[in-house]
Specification:
This protein is mainly alpha-helical. 73% of the residues lie in helices and 0% in strands.
């Protein structure tokens, strides 16, 4: 797949051989053939018809080829915005399906264009981030940590804030992969500090579940300690956007009472006595609270509730 995305499309025989498995989307193969013949108008007509079906089927080959070709057609017209839009959509499909192959296709196409146009200066940061993200996904955590520490150490004050945030987020994920929890939390906290004052949520949201898991643990560890540097409103907003604890209205009155008593430091037995319930019922309530708030422990549930101001 990298041959298609990182260099111009080759001979028709090579293309058909490489994607011969796409027998259910003949329009895709026809578009590839027309593209090689430089019949761009016909390519676009074919892709406009098959693109909805390619999105519906969602197989890697159909998504990659259709979106890369549409992006290249837009770039040939000088429409950089549409070129970027198709690559972003392709990357989103990869994130939603968990397909690194699809995500890498979008990254490599950007790198291909930057290389051909000799505009690498604006793409170096993106390539660095893409490469380290791929290393983390492959489990090559040590190498990612080494490169990220160097990149962070070389970061200049005038570099975009979003880049600094991404570097610290990736470092947190890499350290977490190495089971270095303390270092992971430090890196994650630094990302929160950088993003908090400006309300820069997107870098966290784009990384999906790995960042959501780190956020749950960071909130749990910070519970009761306080941190004047990190904006608590930003953390609360991030919890909500990552679907962590934003379902508080689904808590029943009983569950809210259990959570409140838990916040006072009472154990299950005392909670059961005060609410005239069995300990088994209290445990059931606590389990349901964790499920509704997206928490993995009672300390995380309490931390989420405190950050959102649900506890008296």
């Amino acid at each position: 797949m990298s041959r298609f995305c990182s260099s111009p499309i080759g001979k028709k025989q090579e293309i058909v051989g490489q994607f011969s498995g796409i027998t259910d989307m003949p329009g895709i193969l026809a578009a590839l053939e027309r593209y090689e013949r430089d019949e761009l108008n016909q390519v676009e007509q074919l892709l406009v018809n098959v693109l909805p079906e390619a999105r519906r089927i969602g197989t890697p080959d159909t998504l990659i080829i259709s979106h890369i070709l549409m992006a290249r057609l837009a770039l040939a017209r000088g429409d950089c915005e549409t070129w970027q839009r198709f690559l972003v959509e392709l990357e989103r499909f990869g994130q939603q399906s968990g397909s690194l192959r699809i995500q890498c296709s979008a990254w490599l196409e950007r790198a291909r264009v930057a290389t051909l146009r000799k505009h690498l200066d604006g793409e170096v940061d993106n390539l660095l981030i893409a490469y380290q993200r791929l290393r983390i996904a492959q489990g090559n955590y040590n190498a990612a940590v080494e490169d990220l520490l160097v990149a962070i150490g070389n970061a200049q004050a005038n570099q975009p804030l979003r880049l600094q945030i991404k570097l610290h987020l990736l470092l947190a994920m890499a350290q977490d992969g190495r089971k270095c929890t303390r270092l992971a939390m430090q890196a994650f906290g630094q990302a929160l500090r950088l993003a908090g004052d400006e309300g820069l949520l997107r870098s966290f949201i784009d990384e999906g579940e790995p960042v959501a898991a780190l956020l749950r643990r960071w909130v749990s560890r910070r519970c009761g300690q306080g941190d004047q540097i990190i904006n608590p409103q930003f953390v609360a907003q991030l919890l909500q956007r990552l679907n962590i604890g934003n379902r508080s209205t689904a808590l029943t009155m009983r569950e809210t009472q259990v959570l409140q008593l838990l916040a006072f430091g009472h154990r299950n037995r005392v909670i059961a006595q005060r609410m005239f319930l069995s300990e088994c019922t209290v445990k059931t309530h606590l389990h349901r609270i964790n499920v509704k708030l997206g928490a993995r422990s009672r300390s995380q549930a309490l931390a989420i509730a405190r950050f959102n101001g649900w506890l008296q």
